């Protein structure tokens, strides 16, 4: 087999970069890791690759400072339509970047033990998910859904906090029929505004369908899939809105309860979407003539038609077992597996039948912690040995 020369390798690399840059949309995902460029937190997996892990949203809501918002409206990672939206309301970019970050964090949590663990490359701002997004697979379906959910969630939360000028609380719920022992009040979070903005933002990130193109990154089938999955992501948040109430009355009698709607924990939506990823529906494009719009239908007659809350996909998933530089897949060699688990994180599945090695390493951890009045916690530092199982 002939080895490639250095010039041929460079040419191939440039070609791959060009393909990846043109084929992957929603480059605004990189806004979710901008802060990590200043203060990165990287988790190393022995043997092959480092993963960017996103800190908890609850720890720090802000990702991009408002003073930087206008500058980022001109960011090369936004489409022209997204730049227009951003310039019209630059303060919303704060919420968008928080939504992107929230989506990445949730994706990595849900798939942390799977062969595809939602790896992102913080040094590739144009394409942080790699070539995985070139295929219209189950994993791409989840990324589109969780991203749309993240933007809807963060924009809704920003509205209720008074961080955006175009929205506030959802007062429409007050006009709804109420129970005899409670009434609507307080500040209900306006998920409908968040959904509308998320939809507008996602569609602004789309490139026009090429003339007559059906399949591929710029085809009509992929466009319909992305819109369907994005909508399913938004519905996963809206359908889990919570009603919370507070008692009012003399001496704590709770004669009147005032209630309002608030967002659920984002983890609830993420878990629901991860379950939908497992049962995602394989579909294909059905063209019904010049006067009827094309739609997605089950790929085989025996499959049920997906509803609006299901995830859909068009292509089989790539092989995540082996390293694939073209698609940016690191493979599972060197990943830590769970020897006793029968799930996706178990050594049998995660190591793809290649087996695993066991190593023992010494770790130092806090132990024997006790509370000291007032107000401190004292711990000892203990050394102990830990077994780890590493995929071959």
From TrEMBL:
Keywords: Developmental protein, Disulfide bond, Extracellular matrix, Lipoprotein, Secreted, Signal, Wnt signaling pathway. Coiled coil: none annotated. Residues 1-26 form the signal peptide. The keyword Lipoprotein applies. It comes from the Eukaryota. The keyword Signal applies. One of its GO terms (molecular function) is signaling receptor binding. Transmembrane segments: none annotated. GO terms for biological process: cell morphogenesis; developmental growth involved in morphogenesis; generation of neurons; muscle organ development; Wnt signaling pathway. It is found in: Secreted, Extracellular space, Extracellular matrix. Gene3D superfamilies: 3.30.2460.20. Ligand for members of the frizzled family of seven transmembrane receptors. Belongs to the Wnt family. This is Protein Wnt. The lineage of its organism: Eukaryota, Metazoa, Ecdysozoa, Arthropoda, Hexapoda.
């Amino acid at each position: 087999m002939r080895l490639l020369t250095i010039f041929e390798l460079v040419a191939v690399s440039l070609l791959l970069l060009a393909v990846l840059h043109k084929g992957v949309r929603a480059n605004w995902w990189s806004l979710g890791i901008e802060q990590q460029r200043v203060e990165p937190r990287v988790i190393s997996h022995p043997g092959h690759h480092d993963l960017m892990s996103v800190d908890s949203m609850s720890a720090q809501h802000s990702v991009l400072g408002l003073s930087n918002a206008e500058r980022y409206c001109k960011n090369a990672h936004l489409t022209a339509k997204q730049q227009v939206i951003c310039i019209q309301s630059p303060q919303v970019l704060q919420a968008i970047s928080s939504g992107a970050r929230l989506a990445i964090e949730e994706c990595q949590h849900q798939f942390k033990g799977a062969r595809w663990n939602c790896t992102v490359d913080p040094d590739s701002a144009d394409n942080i998910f790699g070539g995985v997004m070139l295929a219209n697979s189950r994993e791409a379906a989840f990324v589109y859904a969780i991203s749309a959910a993240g933007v809807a969630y963060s924009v809704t939360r920003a509205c209720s906090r008074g961080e955006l000028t175009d929205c506030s609380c959802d007062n429409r719920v007050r006009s709804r029929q109420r129970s005899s022992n409670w009434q609507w009040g307080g500040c209900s979070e306006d998920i409908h505004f968040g959904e509308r903005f998320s939809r507008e933002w996602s569609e602004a990130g789309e490139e026009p369908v090429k003339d007559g193109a059906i399949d591929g990154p710029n085809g009509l089938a992929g466009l319909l899939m992305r819109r369907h999955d994005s909508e399913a992501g938004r519905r996963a948040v809206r359908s889990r809105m919570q009603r919370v109430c507070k008692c009012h009355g003399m001496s704590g009698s709770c004669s009147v309860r005032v209630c309002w709607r608030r967002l659920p924990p984002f983890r609830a939506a993420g878990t629901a979407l991860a379950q939908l990823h497992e049962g995602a529906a394989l579909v294909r494009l059905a063209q019904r003539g010049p006067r009827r719009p094309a739609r997605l239908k089950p790929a085989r007659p025996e499959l049920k038609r997906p509803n609006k809350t299901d995830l859909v996909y068009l292509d089989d998933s790539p092989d995540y077992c082996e390293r694939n530089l073209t698609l940016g897949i690191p493979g599972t060699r060197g990943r830590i597996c769970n020897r006793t688990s029968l799930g996706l994180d178990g050594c049998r599945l995660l190591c793809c039948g290649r087996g695993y090695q066991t190593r023992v390493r010494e770790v130092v951890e806090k132990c024997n912690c006790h509370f000291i009045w007032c107000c401190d916690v004292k711990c000892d530092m203990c050394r102990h040995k830990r077994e780890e199982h590493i995929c071959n």
